[in-house]
Amino acid sequence: MPGGFARDGSAHATIHWEQIGVQHQATSPGRAITVERVTIVGGGLAGMAAAAALVHHQVPIRLLESRPRLGGRASSFRDQVTGEAIDNCQHVAMGCCTNFIRFCEMTGIRQHFEPARELYFFGPQGEMTKFAASRLPAPLHLAGAFFRLSYLSLSEKLALGRALSRLAVATETSITFADWLKHQRQPRRVIDHFWNVVLVSALSESLDRIGLQQARKVFVDGFLRNPQGWVVEIPQQPLEELWAGPVRQYLEANHGLVEVGQGVAKVELCNVSHPHSQANGWRVTGLTMRDSRMIPTGEMIVALPWYRLGEIFPEESPLAEIITQARQLEAAPISSVHLWYDRPITDLPHATFVSGLCQWLFIKPRQAGAAEHPQQTARYGYQVVISASRVLAGQSQEKIIEQVENELKGYFPALGDAHRVHARVVTEHKAVFSPLVGSEALRPAQQSPIANLQLAGDWTKTGWPATMEGAVRSGFLAAENVLRRLDQPAKVLVEDLPTSRLPRLLWGKLG
Ligand SMILES: Cc1cc2nc3c(=O)[nH]c(=O)nc-3n(C[C@H](O)[C@H](O)[C@H](O)COP(=O)(O)OP(=O)(O)OC[C@H]3O[C@@H](n4cnc5c(N)ncnc54)[C@H](O)[C@@H]3O)c2cc1C
């Protein structure tokens, strides 16, 4: 039975899947269907999104995650000193992340993200500018905000405006963004205090390594296409609580089996090619788990990070080329510095710094669960995010914390009187893949060369950088492929925000 699907009313198919123990009865509107559980390996956002999309279409799933918790690179852990759950790093989405927002709506966690429609930019001398949109249509909605940035001169702002407009229609694919900026004769201060600030935060790479098209996407989707694109969405709870709570409940209430602490050791394959057939006869048949258990499978989605894919497939398989290319994707680190004080150091909910080591500061939401902890005086928590943090390599935690505090004192004098109760630095060395020139060609489609195997993960071909949106897109695309193969075709992927009228007139559809 190619692809291993049990379909409506097929006695033969049903017997087959009962034999391997994955047959499942599900009800879709208007008809009873008999379908197998789709196996999903990896419980990061890509795996969770694929799972959510499938159960939404009444397809039962089994989600296998090796760690004791869901979330992958977007997860939390408990800090022993404060008793608080802290995210491995503050994660934010944006208004342009239409699929991530859909995932949140689908799983009932949308209300836990708060839109920030006002940002606070601190210039090199510590001067603060509020950054907010006006009622003007895109792309003029942010023009006033740019003109108010006190640390750029009028001529620098005009140069910035010119380059933004040219970037909208830039088509070169083989140059770095730094080279493109040089061709555009962008002033040094505009590069340092604007382009660098936005792109290092968004892509966690330096401008001399980011490809032009990857940079263009950030500005088109975030600033130019639609007035909602730039709005920053900030989770108000530790991520772990969202995934372990409402998301897991949603999956389990809809024919989902979620198994954490269940690492996959190996994907089992077989080749059933007929000697006279041109067709690729490779099929995924099951999984060997790290505890040696065997799990037979039919349709499978593997949603691992790019650097783990090769660990679970045999050397010789139709995936060999994909694995070789994935290994060529480079990784970039992101660090977060978690700080707790005995008093508030600022009233601002967040802040952006255009120079220095610190890039963003976020206030930590108060956690009820930590109230009984002996260190409950550590109630004023902050997190500083440092993307593309290679510069910190080899530095001690104390040294990093000292540098961060020295910078923060320049912006928030109240810090001078505050007593630090606790601090820690968390660095994810392989936080994201680097959006280098040529990296797009290394990203595989979700449909793998093996018919019943889909790939997902932020690094697969989505057109997006390594983000929660990219991960969710990959999961949705993989789910669409599975649904098509199950003869239940459905659109899962959500469209981008529409291109507003004025940008369409100026630059076309902005594809
Ligand atoms: C520090 C940091 C800050 C970030 N900030 C942002 C941000 O602000 N905004 C944003 O949009 N994005 C941000 N990102 C990026 C975002 O977190 C990722 O793009 C996204 O979470 C990737 O999801 P994924 O499912 O593709 O991969 P992963 O999250 O890596 O998930 C893969 C999962 O597979 C599991 N796994 C691995 N091997 C096995 C195995 N053998 N068997 C079973 N399971 C296995 C892993 O444990 C993991 O849970 C940040 C990332 C980091 C690290």
TrEMBL record:
Residue intervals of the Amine oxidase domain: 45-483
Pfam name, any one: Amino_oxidase
Co-factor(s): FAD
InterPro entries found in the cross-reference section: Amino_oxidase, FAD/NAD-bd_sf, Flavin_amine_oxidase, SQase_HpnE, Zeta_carotene_desat/Oxidored
Record key words, sorted: Oxidoreductase
GO molecular function, one term: oxidoreductase activity
Annotated Gene3D superfamilies: FAD/NAD(P)-binding domain (3.50.50.60)
PANTHER family found in the cross-reference section: BLR3003 PROTEIN, PROTOPORPHYRINOGEN OXIDASE
The protein's name in its UniProt record: Amine oxidase domain-containing protein
